[in-house]
Amino acid sequence: MFRIDRRLLQNFDWLTFFAVVGIAVIGVMTIFSATRQPLDNSQSPLFIKQVIWLFIGICGLVVFVSFDYIWLSRLSIPVYIVAVVLLIIVLITGRVGMGAQRWLSIGPIAFQPSEFFKLAFVIVTAQFLSLDQRTIGMAQLGRLVLIIALLPFILLIKQPDLGTAVVVSAIFFSMLLARGLERKTLVFVIILGLVSLPFLGNILWTGLKDYQKNRIISFIDPEADPSGIGYHINQSKVAIGSGEFIGKGFLHGTQGPFRFLPERHTDFIFAVFAEEWGFVGSIMLLGLYLFVIMRGLDTARKAKDEFGRMLAVGVTFMFCVYFFVNVGMTLGIMPVVGVPLPFMSYGGTALLSNFIAAGVLINVRTRRFSLFY
């Protein structure tokens, strides 16, 4: 099962590997800059923790490349069940932080099961979608929603983890569209979504925490309370705008280190980067993400089987949705939903899960030549 041979190394997707490691290194540098204390020249240890998790993440990537991804299809249901059980345990005994119950603690280590659930969700969805070669009809769509998507969506909303719930839903429907929906099924889904949107919106709104409602209000009108609920978005825009064309330079940003920008090393790390590296640096960073996304789509196109294709599509859309939602909320064109920037934002659980997902993507591309296996 865990066999590495010369052919595997020859076909290893080094371009994707170096791209994601490069983004992670940029993330470590940005965390170092964002968490420094300019007044007393002290430094937070957060960047050291991120470096440690970076090495752990690379090890996780290597492990998930070392065996044939077909094993993931055979283990998809048990992995999915474990991931859902962890979400249930979080609701019962999870640690509360920042108004949400999302963390489990094992000794000194705390982690977010929802981060690992995303990948388990992609794997099990890819498995179900690869079983039937026909386009998806109403009956199959109903089974997929009831069996795979409904329960975890409810559990994520209850934490509450609105960001992950929205991302998981987007990944699910993206994979359905990539797999192929019957025309009448697609029309039905669109009509049902439009008709039920006001009712679902009202139900979700009443179930949101006050801070989540404030985030949506600040997105609609950031100037309604610029020193309160609109503060995050306004300060993020200030940081990005102050970077201008070439930026202030590494370690010369002010919005993050002087703590004008909240969540500077997690959700709003792109704003810190843009302040220091400006428009030019931001375009280069966006280019790296675009390369990973396009490489992932190309991997899906060249996959040797349907499961590999759907697996690559799911992982790629996961990166894509997280990237656009995070950058969108820092620019003020999307509501703040607590979504980290893949490979860059501080957080060991997120970094490890992203590297494992990248390992799955590389695995599919590396084993695209069926003759070898």
Task: Give me the secondary-structure topology.
Layout: H1 6-10, H2 14-34, E1 36-37, E2 42-43, H3 46-65, H4 70-93, E3 95-97, E4 100-106, E5 109-111, H5 113-131, H6 138-158, H7 162-179, H8 183-207, H9 210-220, H10 231-242, H11 269-302, H12 306-331, H13 348-366
Antiparallel strand pairs: 1-2, 3-4, 4-5
Helix pairs in contact: 2-3, 2-11, 2-13, 3-13, 4-5, 4-6, 5-6, 5-7, 5-12, 5-13, 6-7, 7-12, 10-11, 11-12, 11-13, 12-13
Explain briefly what this protein structure is.
The chain has 373 residues and is mainly alpha-helical.
Walk me through this protein's architecture.
The chain contains 13 helices and 5 strands. The chain has a 3-stranded antiparallel β-sheet with strand order 3-4-5. A two-stranded antiparallel sheet has the order 1-2. The protein is mainly alpha-helical. Strand 3 and strand 4 form a beta hairpin. The chain has one domain. Helix 2 packs antiparallel against helix 3, helix 4 runs parallel beside helix 6 and helix 11 packs parallel to helix 13.
Give the overall shape, derived from the CA principal axes: globular
- In sequence order, what are the helices and strands, one letter per element? HHEEHHEEEHHHHHHHHH
Q: What is the domain total for the residues?
A: 1
Radius of gyration: 21 Å
What is the terminal-to-terminal distance?
12 Å
Unreliable residue stretches: none
Strand content: under 5%
Q: In percent, how helical is the residue content? A: 55-70%
**Secondary structure tally: strands:** 5
Number of helix segments? 13
Give a quick account of the main beta sheet: strands, pairing sense, barrel closure: 3 strands, antiparallel
Helix-strand category: mainly alpha
Strand order of the main beta sheet, please?
A: 3-4-5
Average pLDDT reading: 82
